[in-house]
Amino acid sequence: MAANEYRGYLRNQTVMEQGEARLHAAHGTNRPLLFGTLAVMGLLQVASSVTILLHLTGYLHEVNLSSTEPVKEAHSEHLMADALRDIRKKDKPRKNSKDPIAVAHLSVKAPIDFSKTDPNAVTTVYWDEVRGTLNKIRYHDGRLLMEEQGLYYVYAKTCFRYAPDHATKKQDVSNVQLIQYIFHEIHTQSKTKPVLLTKSGGTLQWGNQSYNMYCVQQGRSARLKASDGIFVNVSNSWLLDPEPEGTYFGAFKLSN
Fold first, then answer.
1. Each residue of 131-148: pLDDT tens digit?
2. How far is CA 129 from CA 28, 143, 215, in A?
3. How many domains does the chain have?
4. Same structural domain for residues 46 and 151?
5. pLDDT (mean) for 159-164
6. Residue 69 lies in a domain
7. Structure pTM?
8. What is the DSSP string of the chain?
9. Do residue 196 and residue 236 come from a single domain?
10. For residues 146 and 23, what is the distance between their CA atoms, to the nearest angstrom?
11. Which domain holds residue 9?
């Protein structure tokens, strides 16, 4: 009985030692495979992280997986410069494809003939086209001539002044009329029958003080056709202020 139990004990111990040996052998055999698997998983994780980062930063372009050409190195400074260039192109204002509008602005032409002092005379004002602005509107003989039809805003300002010390000869300005007229000259009608668009002014009672001045400014819209003209007449033109900031004439197109 005792001998049988002893042999059973020896047999169980031998089996246990053989099992431990097989277990150690199995561990020794699987260790390189385990390390290799971990290494491959690590490389895949790094590659995935880099791919996501490149997608988020916009640096990764479409790649032909079948191509065998080497991928060129992307320099961040070049990529940022390209991005800024694209932004500037988007933010750059687009040029207006429409033609510039018709516009004219002319100041009074100096010198003015101060010898015509007839208080009852109404004369046409002449303007300085050399220093003025003319676009799709022509100037001729005191008139602005339209090159295209449309609705225009027409304006004029005339300043009158009198300084006894600067006058060629003494004049009586104690009761003087200073009136401004804007006329529309229709090209299909006779030039002797222009249409009065607007007028303004007043009767001044100037004294003999050293300086007297009075300005008239008016404007209105008018529908004009191609080749129609507009011009300004004034009374007592010999009193016109020759300064360009005080006496000017112009028009600009509002719509067709």
1. 999 999 999 999 999 999
2. 104, 11, 22
3. 2
4. no
5. 87
6. no
7. 0.59
8. -HHHHHHHHHHHHHHHHHHHHHHHHHHHHHHHHHHHHHHHHHHHHHHHHHHHHHHHHT------TT--SPPPPPPHHHHHHHHHHHHHHHHSPPPP-SPPPPEEEEEEPSS--TT---TT-EEE--EEEEEEEEESEEEETTEEEESS-EEEEEEEEEEEEE-TTTSSS----TTEEEEEEEEEE-TTS-TTSPEEEEEEEEEE---SSS-EEEEEEEEEEEEE-TT-EEEEEEESGGGB---TTTSEEEEEEEE-
9. yes
10. 107
11. 2-61+75-91
- Which residue matches tokens 């687009």? 94
CA gap 33, 45 in Å, rounded: 18
Query: What are the structure tokens assigned to 233, written together?
Result: 């007449």
pLDDT tens for each residue of 195-245: 999 999 999 888 767 888 999 999 999 999 999 999 999 999 888 998 999
Q: What angle do CA 159, 246, 197 make, to 5 degrees?
A: 65
Alpha-carbon distance of 122 to 14, in angstroms, equals: 140
Pair of tokens at residue 189: 């009608």
